[in-house]
Design goal:
It is a single chain. By secondary structure, this protein is of the alpha+beta class. It has 18 helices and ten strands. The chain has four domains: 126 residues, Acyl-CoA dehydrogenase/oxidase, N-terminal domain (Butyryl-Coa Dehydrogenase, subunit A, domain 1, Orthogonal Bundle); 103 residues, Beta Barrel (Butyryl-CoA Dehydrogenase, subunit A, domain 2); 149 residues, Butyryl-CoA Dehydrogenase, subunit A, domain 3; 154 residues, Butyryl-CoA Dehydrogenase, subunit A, domain 3, CATH 1.20.140. A four-stranded mixed β-sheet has the order 1-4-5-8. Helix 4 packs antiparallel against helix 9 and helix 8 packs antiparallel against helix 12. The longest helix is centred in the middle third of the chain and has 37 residues.
Length: 554
């Protein structure tokens, strides 16, 4: 496999053990502990959570803290376990089975805690991290406003400097954990620019609006944070005055990766529910799982999960290696921006994988899937928010494409790939996909960064090509002892190539320069692809094992 530097996953020290099916003994114990916690404590109380019983919610946070689950990414000096992105991802994945509580949990451990870890002063870390790690306090993150959704950095909440400190006014909308939180990371506009503040619930002028009546995740607290002349002391400024956007963007990148892990967990849960139901539900005198079209749904879902899981653990491995190899903490923080494309890819792919998983699971349940007595009904509603959380998937696609193009315009060799017609089909389909992307991008006129949003359709196609190739490359690197891994890769690589080819054709068709368009299509036609294989037969082979193993088995 050719290493494509700076764009796609490549083999290195960060890939030694990044897969969830290569857990060490300690990691496996953590996974088992969370599974037991969710099964015995979280799910039995979901109905109470959905009635906004905050006592139950706080109790689950405290129980999570006692198990050490809230501090996986918090340094040991402040009460955490400092176990890195892979383990924190594993925790998020397993907690993804926990219905609404998983949402509040991820917000608390992600955007509610990491700003202190990466940007807090020593005094701020000592004051807040032990309480957040133990579950004594619940954390929240306040960026979105009624008039600032996707354009979050245009927030209007104000911060004015006074002799006594800073006075904050404004409203923050759709704040997860709003009614349970003890402390909020709040962004407001000062004369110097966007600034980040630590706001405690007990400060005068802080109040919370009524719970939002939501489609799904009804057991998570979601409400408006209201700030009325809230006096915040100078020592509660997080980071640098006027540079709050650095915190917002970097923390959102990490939150997208954490959300991706949770989506992987929820996707596995949906697949398991579908297989379990399909084994006991009979039609025409045989179980549903015996029908080829049902098997195809299960296999397509499993392959998407395999790819999403491979990419999330790969990206976590990169970030863990970054933390281990860079000594200066500030250099680590500065480097996080380099991985915004990776994190956005994971967020988009995993949330859309989850949509496929819950949609097909409900379809397999038939009419019963539409009834509240079956878990898949709740899962279907809960899943929909994930394409909106942490930046809509449209915004994330723009992030993917713009991040890539910024690097490509500096060095167009980042897409160079050598095509080897003697390689196996998995490698050939993968490298041809990269070549198709190269043809498409190199044929386009260079975009003015200030005018890129005028070409959003093209940016979307570039982002989707990057996304599909990224998860395929990560899947190829994934260590796995399962003998059907190569079968998964054969299907994934061929189907990725077919999708990428379609997207390349769409991009080339939009070129106005007829000469350049004709030359690009001639180059595309000259590519020698392997003979397409019997994907139906391969998927039937995967289906047999999937059903025998009662769901996702890697």
């Amino acid at each position: 496999m050719v290493k494509v530097k700076g764009v796609f996953p490549y083999e290195g020290p960060h890939t030694d053990s990044f897969s969830s099916d290569e857990l060490n003994e300690e990691e496996q114990l953590i996974a088992n502990m969370i599974e037991q916690f969710v099964e015995e404590q979280v799910l039995p109380q979901n109905e109470a959570l959905e009635t906004n019983d905050y006592t139950v919610g706080r109790g689950l946070f405290q129980a999570s803290g006692e198990l050490g689950l809230l501090g996986a990414e918090v340094p040991e000096a402040y009460g955490g376990l400092e176990m890195g992105k892979k383990v924190s991802g594993l925790v998020a994945e397993k907690m993804g089975y926990g219905a609404s509580f998983s949402v509040g949990f991820n917000i608390h451990t992600g955007v509610g805690t990491l700003p202190y870890v990466y940007f807090g002063t020593e005094e701020q870390k000592q004051r807040y991290l032990p309480k957040l790690s133990s579950g004594e306090w619940v954390g929240a993150y306040a960026l979105t406003e009624p008039n600032a959704g996707s354009d979050a950095l245009s927030a209007r909440a104000s911060a004015k400097k006074t002799d006594e400190g800073w006075v904050l006014n404004g409203e923050k909308q759709w704040i997860t954990n709003a009614h349970m939180a003890d402390v909020y990371v709040v962004f407001a506009r000062s004369e110097e620019g966007m600034t980040c503040f630590i706001v405690e619930r007990t400060m005068d002028g802080v109040s919370v609006g009524p719970e939002e009546d939501k489609l799904g995740i009804r057991g998570s607290s979601t409400a408006t944070l209201i700030l009325e002349n809230v006096l915040v002391p100078e020592e509660n400024i997080l980071g640098v005055i006027g540079k709050g956007h650095h915190i917002a963007l970097n923390i959102l990148n990490l939150a997208r990766l954490k959300l991706a892990f949770s989506n992987v967990g929820m996707s596995k849960q949906a697949l398991e529910e579908a297989v379990k139901y399909g084994q006991v539900r009979e039609q025409f005198k045989q179980p549903l799982v015996k029908f080829p079209m049902i098997q195809e749904k299960l296999v397509n879902t499993a392959i998407e999960i395999f790819a999403a899981e491979s990419a999330t653990y790969y990206t976590a491995g990169i970030l863990d290696h970054l933390n281990e190899s860079v000594e200066d903490e500030q250099d680590v923080v500065k480097s996080l921006a380099n991985y915004q494309m990776d994190c956005a890819i994971n967020k988009v792919y995993s949330s859309e994988t989850l949509d496929t998983a819950v949609d097909e699971a409900l379809q397999i349940h038939g009419g019963y899937g539409y009834m509240k007595e079956y878990d898949v009904e709740r899962m279907y509603r809960d899943a929909r928010i994930n394409r909106l959380f942490e930046g809509t998937n449209e915004i994330n696609r723009l992030t993917i494409a713009k991040s890539f193009l910024a690097n490509y315009y500096k060095d167009n060799t980042i897409l160079d790939v050598e095509l080897d017609e003697t390689a196996d089909n998995v490698t050939r389909f993968t490298d041809l996909s990269v070549r198709l992307l190269q043809i498409a991008v190199s044929s386009l006129p260079e975009m003015d960064r200030s005018k890129m949003d005028e070409e959003q359709e093209t940016l979307r196609l570039i982002a989707d090509m990057l996304k599909d190739i990224y998860v395929l490359k990560a899947s190829l690197l994934r260590p796995s002892k399962d003998e059907t891994k190569h079968l998964f890769l054969e299907v994934l690589s061929e189907e990725t190539y077919r999708k990428v080819e379609d997207m390349a054709i769409s991009i080339l068709s939009s070129i106005e320069d007829e000469g350049k368009k004709e030359a690009a299509f001639e180059e595309l036609k000259s590519l020698s692809a392997p003979m397409y294989s019997n994907l139906i037969g391969k998927k039937r082979e995967i289906a047999d094992k999937l059903i025998n193993k009662n769901g996702y088995y890697f």
